[in-house]
Design brief:
Blueprint: H1 5-10, E1 112-113, E2 141-144, H2 152-155, H3 174-187, H4 194-198, E3 200-229, E4 260-265, E5 271-274, E6 283-285, E7 294-296, E8 305-310, E9 313-318, E10 327-329, E11 338-340, E12 349-369, E13 385-392, H5 404-420, E14 425-445, E15 448-455, E16 460-462
Parallel strand pairs: 1-7
Antiparallel strand pairs: 2-3, 3-12, 3-14, 4-12, 5-12, 6-11, 7-10, 8-9, 13-14, 14-15, 15-16
The structure holds zinc ion (ZN) (3 copies).
């Protein structure tokens, strides 16, 4: 149950545990004895009574370290808590601290611990049942919305196949193969170059790798309720007409095969509602002091004094940090006991509307046909010659490529793409075939024989068996 603030203010700090304390010595300065003769100690300075200059708040009226840097609510305190006009008034300025909190909700019976790292609660979304029913918008959980069905007849129209001829790829010479290996050795600091310089080639086996690539560019749409503080911005509500369907809303599409996300307010779905989080007050109980406007002094643990053992007796000294008050004003609400509501930003009202999220996605797939011991994945990173390249709203599988593995991969991947993204609208597809030269070189050096690969137009080298992989070629005597 809430304790009246006046009582809190007048009650001296708890002296629990000090009931049998020895008499307090008279202060050397000749100040009156402590405690006060009537047994009701007066804590000098708080609250400041009729011009007592010392004590709390510190001289100059600006308490030390207060207000805290950053995070201070704007425009504190409210004037009369005018609901509907927003809280606090927009005239942001100096924070005025008060001694008596005005929070009228529930507060704990005791001061809470000061927690300088307290986290502000996050804005919350209104409960779903408070939202309006909008025709055509039943799925408001952010799940993808099924796109309208295609005109399949249009999509299935066939395109003339391009000539799919495997070009005559240039074969590399022995000098090129040796230069590529020397370059590879120089990039590996431990490798010795002697073997690359001295080796002799026993066999050069050129071949081609094929790289089929399929990209499908799609659009995905989903809807969710959204809210923002209402500050008088235009409201496009149901009175302007029925909301258009989620796939009827026009959006500026990025260039094909560009991933992007955009958000659109669905027309005619907006309304103004009182903030569910603060019940339209614009402010909430302070999450640091829980409405009490103050927290327990961490230095004296709320007692207002420290006890010292001095020359054989206990001495009680007033706490310097709270000046005997045992508490300090809450740094967050400056003593008011309430802070601005984060959900409505103190505006008391929310603009609620349906937000359409549009995602443009590029689905990428590929297939590599490579018949040597070279790891297939290396093919992706090098250039070759593109012998086939097509882009259409829907592409047809390749059927006449000389290597049938590519025809099969094309068929499989296109089939997969055309069924895997049922909740997205396919806007464009493209596929291509690259031919990458791969040369397997068998060679001898000293008594050893080994092989390595030169692949891609860059003449990149894959030589896991290179004999001189240790410093100074020490693995070979
Ligand atoms: Zn507070
Ligand atoms: Zn203290
Ligand atoms: Zn609010």
């Amino acid at each position: 149950m809430a304790v009246p603030y006046a009582k809190l203010t007048d009650t001296p700090p708890s002296s629990t545990g000090y009931g049998q304390a020895p008499p307090y010595p008279t202060y050397a300065t000749g100040q009156p004895n402590y405690p006060h003769p009537q047994g009701q100690p007066q804590y000098p300075g708080y609250p400041p009574q009729g011009g007592a200059p010392q004590g709390y708040p510190p001289q100059g009226g600006v308490p030390q370290g207060y207000p805290p840097q950053g995070g201070a609510p704007l425009g504190y305190p409210p004037q009369g808590g005018a609901a509907g006009q927003g809280y606090p008034p927009t005239d942001g300025g100096n924070v005025q601290a008060v001694d008596n909190p005005t929070w009228e909700g529930e507060v704990p019976d005791d001061d809470v611990e000061d927690n300088p790292n307290v986290q502000a609660p996050q804005p919350t979304a209104p409960p779903a049942e408070k939202m309006d029913q909008v025709s055509g918008y039943d799925n408001m959980q952010g799940a993808p919305l099924p796109p309208p069905s295609y005109n399949e007849a249009m999509m299935q129209s066939s395109y003339p196949e391009q000539s799919e001829v495997t070009p005559n790829m240039p074969t590399i010479t022995e000098d090129q193969a040796r230069d590529a290996l020397l370059q590879h050795v120089s990039e590996n600091c431990c490798y010795g170059a002697k073997a690359a310089r001295e080796l002799s080639f026993s066999n050069i086996m050129p071949s081609n790798a094929f790289h089929y690539i399929l990209d499908t560019f799609t659009e995905k749409r989903s809807t969710k309720w959204a809210q923002e503080p209402y500050h008088g911005q235009p409201i496009d509500g149901p009175y302007n007409g029925p909301a258009p369907g989620p796939w009827q809303i026009e959006a500026r599409q990025p260039p094909p095969f560009t991933a992007q996300v955009t958000h659109v307010e669905v027309p005619h779905t907006a309304s103004v509602k009182p903030c569910h989080d603060c019940l339209g007050l614009g402010r909430k109980r302070c999450y640091h002091c829980y409405g009490r406007g103050r927290t327990r002094c961490t230095h004296c643990h709320g007692r207002g004094h420290h006890t010292h053992y001095h020359e054989g007796r206990h001495e009680r000294r007033q706490c310097h940090f709270c000046h005997g008050w045992g508490r300090k004003r809450c740094f967050l609400c400056h003593g008011h006991g309430h802070v601005v509501c984060r959900t409505c930003n103190g505006r008391c009202q929310l603009k609620c509307f349906i937000r359409l999220t549009i995602e443009w996605i590029v689905h990428h797939d590929d297939h590599i046909v490579e018949r040597t011991a070279l790891p297939d994945t290396l093919i992706r990173g090098v250039s070759g010659e593109t012998v086939f390249n097509q882009q259409h709203p829907r592409v047809m599988p390749i059927t006449h490529f000389p290597d049938n593995n590519i025809n099969q991969a094309s068929h499989t991947l296109i089939q997969r793409h055309n069924t895997a993204y049922a909740m997205e609208r396919i806007l464009m597809q493209r596929h291509s075939v690259r031919v990458i030269p791969v040369t397997n070189l068998h060679c001898n050096w000293k008594s050893e024989s080994f092989s390595y690969f030169v692949y891609g137009f860059e003449h990149r080298v894959h030589a896991p068996d290179y004999p001189q992989q240790c410093c100074c070629g020490c693995s070979i005597l």
